[in-house]
Each structure stands twice: as C-alpha cells, then as structure tokens.
Amino acid sequence: MKNNYRIPIIFLFFIFFFLIIFGDFLYLSLHKPPNYFTPKTYKKIIALRGNIFTKNYIVAKSEKIYAVSINPKFIDPNKKNLFIKLFSIYTSVPQQKLRNLLKSKKYVILAKVDLKTAQNLKYLLKVLDKKRVFLTDKNTGLRIGYSITDYSFKRVYPYKDTLEPVLGRYRPDKKCGENGLEEYYNTLLSPKSNGIVKGYRDVYGNIIYDNNVFIKHAVNGQNLPLNIDLVLQRKIEKLLDMQKKKFKADEVMAAVMNSKTGKILAIASSNRYNPEDVRKKDIKNMKIGFIRTLYEPGSVMKPITFAILLQNNKVNPYEVLNGYNGRWKPKWRKTPIIDDKPFAWLSAENAIVYSSNIVISQLALRLTNKEFYQGLKNFGLGNYSGIDLPYELKGYIPSLKRLNFPIYKSTTAYGYGILVNFIQLLKAYNVFNNFGIEITPKIANVPTTYKRVLSAKNAEIMRNILRKVVLKGTAKAAIIDGIFTAGKTGTAQRSVNGKYGRTYNSSFFGFADDNNHRYTIGVTFINIKAKWPNYFASNSAVPTFKKIVDIMINQNLLRKNGNGK
C-alpha cells in the first residue's frame, strides 16, 4: 500500500521542480540582471537581379555569393592548422592562401562562396566550436568563430550559349547588363534596394528572431518572362550549326514568329558564346546579327515592292509584261538587267513566282517617288523595327530625290541599293500572313504595337502569290504535305569595297500555317561560300526553312491538316 503512494509523490516532485526551472527562465528572459550582456548584430540582405525565364526554363538567374570572414586573433594558435585544413577542404581555398590571410590583425575575408558551400560551412562552424578551435571574446564571454554574410550575387546561365547573343550577359564590374535582353531590360531586372536584419545574436552569431529584431526586406529586380520556346530554340541552333558548316557561311540566322501576336518563339544564330566564360575568340559572336548586320536583301525585296504597287492600285496581278527573253537594256542604264531564267512574256504575279528582275523593274517605274518611298517606310524599312534588343541599325532606303531616277527605282525594286536587317524583313513579311496588319515583334512577353499596312484583300493576294513560289517557283523544296507553306527566296551578291564579287547572302522569308496557327519564319545565310549551285537560296535557305517546320511539327506547334491549304 505504501508503494502505491510513492509514485504520485515522486511525480509531484518532478512537476514542482520543472515549474521552478521554467519560472527562472521566464524571469531571466523578462528581467535580465544588470551585468547580463547579449551582443547585438546585424546582417545585410543582398537584393538580387531578376530572373529571365521561358515557360518551363530559367535561362538567366542570380545566385547569392556569401563572404566568410574572421578575426584571426580568435583562432587558437594550437589549433590553427586544424582550422586551415578543414576550411580548405570545405571551400577549396588553398591552404597556403589561408595561412597568408590569417596573418592579418583585423577581420579578413577568407572566401566567397555559394549557398551550398555556405550551408556546409555553418555545419563546420559547429564542429570547430565543439573542438574549441575558437577563443573567447573577453567583452562578450562568447567564442568568436567566422561569420557568413551576404556579399553579392553572380549571374548564372544554366544553358550556356543557348539564346546567345540575344540574351546578352551581366557585367558584375559595371553592375549592369551588357548587350541583348540583359541590357535592354536592365532597369527592370536590376535589384532595387538591399535589406537588413538587426537583433541579438546567439553563441554561433545567428540573429535571434524575437520581438527585438528589426527586418527591412530586400527589393529584388523583377523577373522577365520570354515568349521563347526553349526546346525549339535549341533544336534550331543545332540545325544552324550544321548548316553553317555545310554551306561555309559566316553566320546563319533564323527566327520563328507568331504571325498574329508578334511573339518570337525562336531567334537563333550559329554564332554564339557562353556568357559565363567569354574568351577573345567570342567577341565577334557578341554582335547581334539580327539587328546589326545590314545587307542588300536581293529578291526577297520583290514581294514588298509588289505589295506597294497593289496598295497604290498600280498593278493587276494577271496582266502580262515583256520579259525581253531575260535581258533588258533600258536607255537609262549603262548595263542590262538580267534574269536567271529567260521569259518572253510574264504575268505580273509571276515576276514574284519566277523572280524576274526585268518585270519587277518595269512595274516599279509606275510608282511616283513619294509612293515608293512612303511604301517602304510603311513596311518598316529605313526605321527601327521596335524589337526589344539594343543598338539596332535601321538601315538605308534611297531618298525621295534619288527615287525620282529610274535606275534607283529599278534596283531598289529587286533588292539592291537598299540596306535592311533581318528583323525588318521578318516584320515586313509578317504583314502578308497577318491580314495586312504590321505587328512589332517581341522576344519578351510584353505588350506590342499594331498598324495596318495593307488592306486585308491585298495581303491575301500577296499570301497566295507567295504560295505559288513554293508550289511552282523557286522554293519547291519548302513543300510540306498538310501544311500551308509560302515565301520568297533571295540570293544577293555581296558588295565588297564597292564592287560585287562572287560571294552571296541567301535568304528565305515565308510562312508555315495550319488550321489553327500562323507562323512567319525567316532564314538568312551571311556570306555563304558554298559552290554553285548550293549558294542559291533555293538550295540552302529553303531546305533550312523546311527543316525548321519539320521540327515545329514534331513539337506539335503545327499540325498537318491533310490538304496543305
């Protein structure tokens, strides 16, 4: 019976003892003794640059860099070698470098590390503390180890050269983006203000988050969403790498644009670089050729000339004109205009289908200088395209005065004596596939602008003529069963030191549509040096276009509808 009373008594004793201990802790937390000292500390929170991302992938992100600092006087001299050895293992900082740093008589930064290493170093700090590696601070009565604090951030590009040079890079020395989207959207992406946390610290130097803590949150830069389909982008880049080598070109460029929205799904170049490891040989690849390489477009200019004629009611697509059997010497030219294929007579629309310099020249002479000049301007030539990339060159179109002369009208009509960039042509061709409405292409998912350039009727006429180029003209290699493909080839001689030599730029700009989607696609080879006849656009740019469409079909961006119309 006595044993039955003993258990409750012991139980009550433990409850009483627990209440006394709890009361002591409560009293000490609310009423600290006069000589009680808890050191205060603060921590800076580095604001980060915003991420750049596509639907499923982050293509540029910021990762914090942490500084690990210590006052060497708080390391036990007898255990310094242990500290150096373990710290070197955790951080990969050479032991001799650590020895040199620890000769300092004040706080010194031992290493700058990433998040994972910082987390491992926090564990090491506890291990070293248990081994009494650190000495006690006489003022606080605490052992003082190393501190890990926010230092800065580094820019990380997980997919290396993908989307370069359009993506650009971040320059930590200048604290801003350089080239590409990184620079164009620098204000949006840049960190706004650092944060800070102030409060009492524990024995390991960590801030105690109680009612006494003060927190000011960091304001990071905004994230930037892109319209890019990264899988499509990467596959096209690999294709262009092969095509550049096969056709011996200086650069191959391609882009895919949603015709209705202006969203750029892919904008790929064969000339890329890794923004995390830029070498001397990469400098030339930092140039964004899409907007900074100006060239004479050649025959891809003819549909634009024809559309200007249509809009000014100066042409009937079915009227027949003299083809002069492929050689025409008007009195206002010193040399004849020559076609690759001779035709005695040719309909106006077939000047596009079979790419006749002679017929398009005759048609262009019907335009007044003001009509032609304004038409070129309406299509965005000689102006900035508005794409979200920095340092665009707007090119050149002949002045009103020059367009008074037949020779300038003629050569401009078939793509010489005029300088354009790739994006200007992509934007201009999109008018034909978007019911006559011009739309500003955008790589980032941001608002865009619209403007009517052609009537819907004339845009449809142009679209159907460009379809005939694929069905029976110079772009038969672009035929794909079940997909509406259309466009225009252009093989232009390059002017070197004011003279036209035997080097070429070849292009194909056109469309790939199904029942639910419309895409405008451009391909350009710069300084293509393949042997005849492979340098012609029909043998280089057009097959590349077809391969891009095949990729899009495989990714379900296009679906075959059975008739290709």
How are the elements arranged and paired?
Blueprint: H1 2-30, E1 40-45, E2 52-53, E3 58-70, H2 80-91, H3 95-101, E4 108-113, H4 115-130, E5 147-156, E6 169-171, E7 176-178, H5 180-184, H6 186-189, E8 195-200, E9 214-216, E10 224-225, H7 230-247, E11 251-258, E12 264-269, H8 289-292, H9 302-311, E13 320-322, E14 327-328, E15 337-338, E16 345-347, H10 350-353, H11 357-364, H12 369-378, H13 406-413, H14 422-433, E17 437-439, E18 450-452, H15 456-472, E19 484-496, E20 499-513, E21 518-528, H16 541-554
Parallel strand pairs: 2-10
Antiparallel strand pairs: 1-8, 2-3, 3-4, 3-5, 6-7, 8-9, 11-12, 11-21, 13-16, 14-15, 17-18, 19-20, 20-21
Helix pairs in contact: 2-4, 7-16, 9-11, 9-12, 9-15, 11-13
